[in-house]
Amino acid sequence: MIAIGTILVSTGSYVPEYRLTNSMLTNMVDTSEEWIIQRTGIRERRVAVDQTTTELAIVAAKRALEDTDLIPQELDLIVACTATPDSYTPSVACRVQTALQAQQAFAFDLSAACSGFVYATDVVDSYFRAGKARTALVICAETLSRIIDYTDRTTCCLFGDGAGAAVYQWSDRKDGILQTVMGADGSRADALLAKALPVEDPLHPDRAASSAERFLKMNGKEVFRFAARTVPEAIDHVLEGSGITLDQIDWIIPHQANLRIIDVICRRYGLRKEQVYVNLERYGNTSSASIPLCLDEMRRKGLLQTGQHIIFVGFGGGLTYGAVLMCI
Ligand code: UT7
Q1: Residues whose beta carbon lies within 6 Å of some atom of ligand 1
Q2: Is the whole-model pTM more than 0.90?
Q3: Would you tell me the crossing angle of helices 290-300 and 53-66 to the nearest 10 degrees?
């Protein structure tokens, strides 16, 4: 049988148990539950108190594989996305490969912040089309709490920890991934910045950074404006490129950053709330993990059915953005 399309075989996810609620945040910074709900839609987020990014990634990866007929040794590509890796080297992907005993897979990390899952999906699809892989695991895992300054009210209410994973296969179905688009604007890099600097470096004292510099800093308004422009552009692009019309789309799954950004998408396309999946009220912004966390919840609730058309769309640090249109 000739393989011609990249299909989504399975998903998995994991969130740490500890819940940081809006009410708890009001005891930590000068904020209010009303402000957080009205400006973001977030009610609580999870924090990995004693777990690493890699540990979150491994659980999500195992859960994704458990729901398939595949054994780990059948994976030939593992891509991990994270803005919060545990080490400069090895990659999270190599750690996951070892934990799964997926020795046949080549493995690497991809850095595209909140657009990570979209970028990784496109990379997997491209490897499949080039004939270099046929079965791939994408894992997105974040422990953003490690780079959040919990005295900074402009960021600490927004972000949470979690992991999501997806298994893709090169298949004889001619649908699967129908269209992708990715973009970046590095000139806006400072709008969302988390530096990787040594706190103390006796050899290079000029490069030493205070721990404060290692915290995530964000110009929220600039990222908001970027998202409001690029998300509709990306959706338009994948619709036009695939010849699929908006009324054929069953679900739009946006990166879960702010309910007001999702409202912009709904208004722009005249979408009903039920066509757009949202879970940010429970997890906040989990960066690259947000879209696969949604996909996994949707699949387990039975909301994803074979033959449906979905679009997932991401944006964030870089600044980056991208969208994928697929028939599941
Ligand atoms: O994953 C991709 C990365 N991130 C994003 O997508 C984030 C995109 N941006 C956003 O979601 C929004 O811009 C934010 C939620 C970050 C901020 O909402 P905003 O409506 O743009 O608020 P703002 O930054 O304009 O701040 C309005 C006011 C300010 O006070 P003044 O200057 O008007 O007196 C802020 O100091 O709200 C204040 N403020 C807060 N007040 C209470 C900012 N954060 C808080 C807070 N609690 N947590």
Answers
A1: 31, 35-36, 39-40, 114, 153-154, 157, 192, 218, 220-221, 223-224, 227, 257-258, 285, 316
A2: yes
A3: 30
